[in-house]
Amino acid sequence: MDNIRQMDMVRDIAESYAEKTPEQSKFEQLTALDRNVRRPAEIFAYTFGCAGSLVLGAGMCLAMGVIGAGAGWAMPVGVVVGVVGIAAVAANYFIYKAILKRRKAKYAKQVINLSDELLNK
After folding, report:
1. What is the C-alpha separation between 116 and 121, in angstroms, rounded?
2. Of 57, 89, 99, 101, whose Cβ has the fewest other Cβ atoms within 10 Å?
3. Residue 57 CB neighbours (<10 A)
4. pLDDT the model gives residue 80
């Protein structure tokens, strides 16, 4: 039993040092292409959404007097900043969909060709 486990470990170590072939299967190419299409839109959506929620939070803090307590300008400025944050968070989804649609249109031909090859059409 111990000898078999050692042989498996030796095989695993040898495989980890073996050269990988640069050639990918069609399925791997398709999934990689799909990731490359979606990734920029997702990165933008996460970044813009976080920034918008931070702006919204800063506006709420100003409006509630957590920041700038006692200042007469804090509440109106906070409301304006909060509305800007709400607008950014609300627009985030639509911007994400527009970016994704544009990237899908750009790579549609490659994705369809690979899909047809995999489905034997």
Report:
1. 5
2. 101
3. 14
4. 96
